[in-house]
Structure prediction request, 126 residues.
Amino acid sequence: MCSKECVRKVLLYFGYTSSPDIGPEQVQLMARAIDILESKQNLKVLPVFVTIDPQRDTPSQLRAYLEDQFNSRIVGLTGPVAAIRQMAQEYRVYFKKVEEDGGDIVSHSSAVHAFLYDVLYGCNSH
Prediction:
């Protein structure tokens, strides 16, 4: 059995670390939401950032981006493109690489998904 201390509400965002504008705004919104939900609503939150540009966003880049600029509690996830694409489809998140002004950007939907159901996090189950 898991204690109440292990139960979290999930905030999930799909983005990429080199996003020029919308991405940082959404991650900042997520960081503020963590503070509000935990301090004013007394909820435990598990914030998750899933990269949609795994070719450029390495685990160390994700960690540095999230910890240095936003909130060290945001968990960064990466993986094979096919797995990320499948996960994005399950959450109805759109993304596509686009060439713009000589560089690649990733066009994507920008919603932060909030899950009000409980997930177990950091529990030692037996």
